[in-house]
Design a protein that fits this description.
Layout (H helix, E strand, L loop, with lengths): L1 E5 L3 H12 L5 E6 L2 H11 L3 E5 L7 H9 L6 E6 L4 H9 L4 E4 L3 H12 L12
Parallel strand pairs: 1-2, 1-3, 3-4, 4-5
Helix pairs in contact: 2-3
Length: 129
């Protein structure tokens, strides 16, 4: 599975890329530090999935998700954010996100959320919400 990770926090970006690199069948094919970079990465790498931070400079993750999901053959998008309130989750889904994971839950919820969106990669049964 080809993944792009978009987050403006370089330390968090490095940590998530390292975490995903240890998962069988996951390949991080792009990194983005802004919404504009995420759009470019989606165009140039043809990922299956984008992990999208909600708050980024220039174009936030919700705007970026809307733009990416409006394209034919759009990748799946999971919004990953520090904002855990239900309103943020609702806003992410309204923007077209396929999943939502709070950064505080990433170690325990990210892989199950990804596997739920791509059951052919194994380990199904979890929900992305």
């Amino acid at each position: 599975m080809r993944i792009v990770v978009a987050d403006d926090n370089a330390s968090f970006l490095d940590a998530v890329v390292g975490f995903l690199g240890r998962e069988p069948g996951f390949e991080v094919v792009g990194r983005a530090g802004s919404g504009h970079e995420a759009v470019r990465a989606a165009e140039t790498t043809a990922p299956d999935l984008i992990l999208m931070d909600m708050v980024m400079p220039g174009m936030n993750g919700l705007e970026t998700t809307r733009l990416i999901k409006a394209r034919p053959s759009a990748p799946r998008v999971i919004v990953v954010t520090v904002h855990e309130a239900p309103g943020y989750r609702d806003a992410a889904y309204a923007a077209g996100a396929d999943g939502f994971v709070a950064k505080s839950d990433i170690g325990r919820m990210l892989v199950p959320a990804i596997r739920a969106l791509f059951p052919q990669t194994g380990g199904g049964g979890a929900t992305a919400a």
